[in-house]
Amino acid sequence: MNSNKMNAIVATGYGSTDVFQFKTVAMPQPKPDEVMVKVIATTATTADAMMRTGKPYFARLFLGLTKPKNPIPGTGFAGYIEQVGEGVRDFRVGDAVFGLTTLGFGANAEFLTIRETGVILPKPANLDFAEAASYGDGHLTSFNFLKQVAKVSAGHRVLINGASGSLGTSAIQLAKYFGAEVTAVCSGKNAGLVKSLGADVVIDYTKADFTQSDQTFDFIFDTIGRSSFRKCKPILKKNGVYLSPVMKLSLLVQMMLTKLSGGKKAKFEATGLNPDPVLRTLLSQVLCIHQAGKLKTIIDRQFPLAKLADAHAYIDSGHKVGNVVILNA
Predict the structure, then answer these.
(1) Fewest 10 Å CB contacts: which of 9, 200, 277, 329?
(2) What share of the chain has pLDDT > 90, as a percent?
(3) Regarding the domain delimited by 137-272, which CATH topology (the fold level of the hierarchy) does it fall under?
(4) What superfamily would CATH give domain 5-123+298-327?
């Protein structure tokens, strides 16, 4: 292959997995304050799959109106520093790193560029590339919601909907780390997994509607956005909060309305829209929890880069458990 070319996935528009094409494209070149990373592992996430469809439509105000502004998808990555810009001081060629490109996307490729002050950290030797690439999705998002947004602490009662997914498997561990009592909602076949991660109570959604529970909760973290504040309100405590990372117009409306009144609240936040220094700090804090032996990364399946469309089809099936990783040969 030409030394100035690389393999990458290119999204030709919005829609089904058919919009993805495996192409040879120009290799990005680092600016003076950037590093080039040779990507060993990247990810395919539920958020990626939603952005691929361009829905909800108002999200295209950020992503691009008729097609993605940044045609190479993916945000999470792990790899080696291949090249450094002339002004870079914190990284050297050959350093193992991991991080998140946020709205820069571009991670589903053989190489990417990112500012040295972006969301990028040295990769510890005891964290493999597949795990490290996944940190920007489940771990970082769940940490932000539970620690920064909700401020979960000892004694709180937390319900996690979508407990066997990328965010859910992380949220169970983090909520327990913060001292909360955790109720996990997932299918019965994944009950053993979520219990092994620390869930105190498991509700099989195929057999029971968690919104009809006789228990009340300080926080309901709807990681998959399949419920709503309206449905969950009866099982929230007096000042309880419904949290979701899934952007819906109805949730944004409820968030604005409940912000003006006391009592129960609805909250949404796009973690990836936080400033890079904030995300980098959060990622460092999450890494410390891993290094203390309190956080595992659950990996469901791995696909080669050329099969990213298959990875998205698997995510669309709704059967993903934990994370889906994309590997470069």
Answers:
(1) 329
(2) 92
(3) Rossmann fold (3.40.50)
(4) Medium-chain alcohol dehydrogenases, catalytic domain (3.90.180.10)
> What's the rounded Cα separation, in Å, for the pair 142 and 168?
8
How large is the average pLDDT for residues 206-221? 97
- pLDDT above 70 coverage of the chain, percent: 99
Q: What is the pLDDT of residues 73-104, one digit of tens each?
A: 999 999 999 999 999 999 999 999 999 999 89
Q: Model's pTM, two decimal places? A: 0.94
Task: Domain ranges for the chain, please list them.
Answer: 5-123+298-327, 137-272
pLDDT for position 3: 77
Q: How far apart are CA 124 and CA 151, in angstroms?
A: 27
pLDDT grade for 60, boundaries at 50, 70 and 90: confident
